[in-house]
């Protein structure tokens, strides 16, 4: 992928036109989003969105690698970033490097994302100093759901200072960009102004250098959890449900298959067809 965007390309987009980012977990969706996106994230949201897990905590390194490989096959232009899953990097820089190197080698991604700012600064520096570009993720970090006691807005009031420190620590440690999740607009603007790397917002206002959404959320395919920031650009779930109901009814009424779906004993020799 010689024409793919690189982490330095993304870092250079600070304060330029907004970075467009989406998640993808499969080859066909990667092909759909690639021409329109700067970054495609193989998020650990895959656990909830595709595997029916109650949170991201049960996602494994092998799951991330399998989905990363699938996404890689569908990309030409966008930078692919793969999430480090809970429990595979927090022990220390060595564990993080060992597992991130496996993710890079096996998926072909050019960067990984991990959750944490101050707490992960040493790890981010260790990875970036050894050839693994890192995207940081601060504010609401879903892998800390139990520590937070839910998925509430972060950084309100005097908590803002903690999130600013996280942003600064991630940037100073060498992260090439940082995801800001579910924080007030005033804080997102403040962070975007004071760090030199692009901020990618999700539930963090238009004040960021870019935006990211979970693709299944914005397509209306994943509706088990709803949140104010996930604008629905389509209702593909409803369309799929209607199509499945049509199919079920037509089978029960013997209206499907119709004559055009049926093979004859003699070939009909349709050019390029399988008839
Ligand atoms: O896992 C994910 O999809 C993410 C994005 C929402 C930032 O981390
Ligand atoms: Na994630």
UniProtKB/TrEMBL annotation:
Q: Which InterPro entries match?
A: Pantoate_hydroxy_MeTrfase (IPR003700), Pyrv/PenolPyrv_kinase-like_dom (IPR015813), Pyrv_kinase-like_dom_sf (IPR040442)
State the needed cofactors, names only.
Mg(2+)
The entry sums up its family as follows: Belongs to the PanB family.
* Cofactor mode of binding and number, as noted: Binds 1 Mg(2+) ion per subunit.
The record ties this protein, via Gene3D superfamilies, to: Phosphoenolpyruvate-binding domains (3.20.20.60)
Protein function: Catalyzes the reversible reaction in which hydroxymethyl group from 5,10-methylenetetrahydrofolate is transferred onto alpha-ketoisovalerate to form ketopantoate.
Catalytic machinery residues: 181
Q: Which GO terms describe its molecular function?
A: 3-methyl-2-oxobutanoate hydroxymethyltransferase activity
Q: What are the alphabetically sorted keywords of the record?
A: Cytoplasm, Magnesium, Metal-binding, Pantothenate biosynthesis, Transferase
Give the gene name: panB
| The protein's name in its UniProt record | 3-methyl-2-oxobutanoate hydroxymethyltransferase
Subcellular localization, per the record?
Answer: Cytoplasm
Q: What class of enzyme is it?
A: transferase
> Could you say which residues bind 3-methyl-2-oxobutanoate here?
44-45, 83, 113
Q: Name one Pfam family in it.
A: Pantoate_transf
Q: Which reaction does it catalyse?
A: (6R)-5,10-methylene-5,6,7,8-tetrahydrofolate + 3-methyl-2-oxobutanoate + H2O = 2-dehydropantoate + (6S)-5,6,7,8-tetrahydrofolate
**Complexes and interactors:** Homodecamer; pentamer of dimers.
Positions with a binding annotation for Mg(2+): 44, 83, 115
Report the EC number(s), separated by commas if there are several.
2.1.2.11
| Pathway where this protein functions | Cofactor biosynthesis; (R)-pantothenate biosynthesis; (R)-pantoate from 3-methyl-2-oxobutanoate: step 1/2
